Amino acid sequence: GRARLRATFKGMKVLFGEYFQRLFSGGEANLVWIETEDPIAPGIDIRARPPGKAMQSVYLLSGGEKALTALALIGAVLRLRPTPICLLDEVDAALDDANVARFCALLAELGTSAQEMRFVIISHHRLSMAKADHLFGVGMPERGVSRLYAVDMLEAAEHIHQSN
Amino acid sequence: GRARLRATFKGMKVLFGEYFQRLFSGGEANLVWIETEDPIAPGIDIRARPPGKAMQSVYLLSGGEKALTALALIGAVLRLRPTPICLLDEVDAALDDANVARFCALLAELGTSAQEMRFVIISHHRLSMAKADHLFGVGMPERGVSRLYAVDMLEAAEHIHQSN
Amino acid sequence: MHITAITLSGFKSFAESTHLSVDRGLTVVIGPNGCGKSNIIEAVRWVMGENSAKRLRGAEMEDVIFAGTRQRRRRQSAEVRLTLDNQARRAPAPFQDVPEIVVSRRIERGQGSTYQINNQEVRACDVQMLFADLSIGSRSASIISQGEIAELVENKPDARRLLLEEAA
Amino acid sequence: MHITAITLSGFKSFAESTHLSVDRGLTVVIGPNGCGKSNIIEAVRWVMGENSAKRLRGAEMEDVIFAGTRQRRRRQSAEVRLTLDNQARRAPAPFQDVPEIVVSRRIERGQGSTYQINNQEVRACDVQMLFADLSIGSRSASIISQGEIAELVENKPDARRLLLEEAA
Ligand SMILES: Nc1ncnc2c1ncn2[C@@H]1O[C@H](COP(=O)(O)OP(=O)(O)OP(=O)(O)O)[C@@H](O)[C@H]1O
Ligand SMILES: Nc1ncnc2c1ncn2[C@@H]1O[C@H](COP(=O)(O)OP(=O)(O)OP(=O)(O)O)[C@@H](O)[C@H]1O
Ligand SMILES: [Mg+2]
Ligand SMILES: [Mg+2]
Q1: What values do phi and psi take at A139, rounded to 5?
Q2: Cβ-based interface (< 8 Å): residues of A facing D
């Protein structure tokens, strides 16, 4: 009921704050419980302040900052209650190199912690590829027909190295 | 009036088809004039088929394919009627390397053609940076306060090379 | 409990039967634009019971069936299977005693979708219920489609309540 | 006609006066997340007459004024200037005879926005009209904000009609 929801909320708020600080190397972030007519259906507001900046509306954050804030929130939810899989489609598209690295570190931690979360992510980013435990390629050797193939990590690294 | 609009539409359709084929290395794309109650306010539908694929709803296209299709359309409009500036904020975020290269080639062509279009684009992609005629960096040496500085292309290339 | 495999057959651009095994840690899927990566994510949302064709970029649900190419005829059906590992025997009833749970959804042209769990035909809501018990589902924060990551932050406060319910 | 310079002063994270000259060809702006790149694009949309604070990620128009940091006091006003080169003397009346056209917008806390063209105070619609004559404006296809590129393709057919009107 409501007591359980409030307890969960408290845990989510603390974890969200921690993950935010880790992904942003500082700053602070908070969740706010907003009462609605339904006592077990609150609204949840986000207050976030990247390091050195003033606390402002989250809507004013940059594209990359919003993505990172969202990832901190997802991390908190997964840590509280792991799921059978987590699928992330190009969530690193808006991130700069330094933030891609922090994003991958977050996934690695959730993957090795008690949660043992398994992630399948889609990415065009070479830094994300480099952090893969398993790498798959999708291609269309016959046009319009997708094929999946396992990619050897060392071969891929060689290929990326050559293309630079 | 309507005659002029129809003539413009015809030109837009042809150019859109050309730019699409260039960005996709093939395939075909079309614009369709849709009559509404207002004879000078038609709807414009897009039909696009990447090479080798069946003609389907544009909504089924991938993120990168949609971005590329949109860029073909923008290219057609700019070619018909150049504007004082064109600002593109991270439009290459969804593009793979090969398509970023085609995107930059399109900008280069519009920049040197009779249109002499000037582009200011924001990008995290090293291939787009490499194609810049002028490079600016934005940073926050004092946290929360933006500063703009001109970046020397050769120095930047060196820096990118080292980070790989 | 973990999802250990995703199998697609005739789903969107995956004309042929395709098997993706999901191991521990981080799996990264790469490939050029339009090659089918997001289609895999949508296949998982679909087999978990996604009802809105629009959320799968289609106009109607049959749009997920392989539509054919200039060289290859279209398919009459699409099927996606998810394999869940239940070694720890923690699955919700009535599946707590089986080592593996295989959930599948199939759609035939002109006939709509059918669902199965371990080869028994079930209703859509049974599948949605099973995944809901595992705190996941086609609208879960555990599945973020292309372009949607910022929505968690840009949404209204009441849209975010789902996260709280998932975590509880 | 070309825009040859963009000047921001007190606009969002640009607390100090910042001058970006726009030369021929391709200018690329780079930098880490959150450093202010998109704010530059929004500054241009704003000075061209953008009326919706929401489209600039704010709740009200005063949200574009530098809000201060822990080390620096907030500013009382924001100003953005665009310089258009009219060497070819093709500008619309009444500006056809000047070599350069400088358009600026200023907002003061508690006082709203004022516009100027070549140091003459004008109305917002005069600025919007000038740019409309040049086939550009805050809603033009020539200005694509972050995350919006796919919208051109995903929109309804009547939203795309604006492109036709711009090209005509
Ligand atoms: N029913 C269908 N039959 C055949 N092909 C389809 C069907 N539905 C979608 N497609 C094709 O699948 C392709 C899109 O695949 P998808 O979105 O997975 O690409 P992607 O690998 O994620 O690319 P990106 O990197 O650009 O996001 C489109 O080209 C589309 O035409
Ligand atoms: N009025 C304001 N005063 C001070 N800072 C502001 C103001 N409005 C927005 N900001 C700050 O500007 C930053 C966003 O800048 P912007 O969106 O330009 O970043 P960006 O360089 O485009 O980043 P990204 O690469 O992630 O897209 C935010 O951190 C926000 O807090
Ligand atoms: Mg995709
Ligand atoms: Mg930005």
Answers
A1: -145, 175
A2: 50, 52-54, 56-57, 59-65, 68, 94-96, 98-99
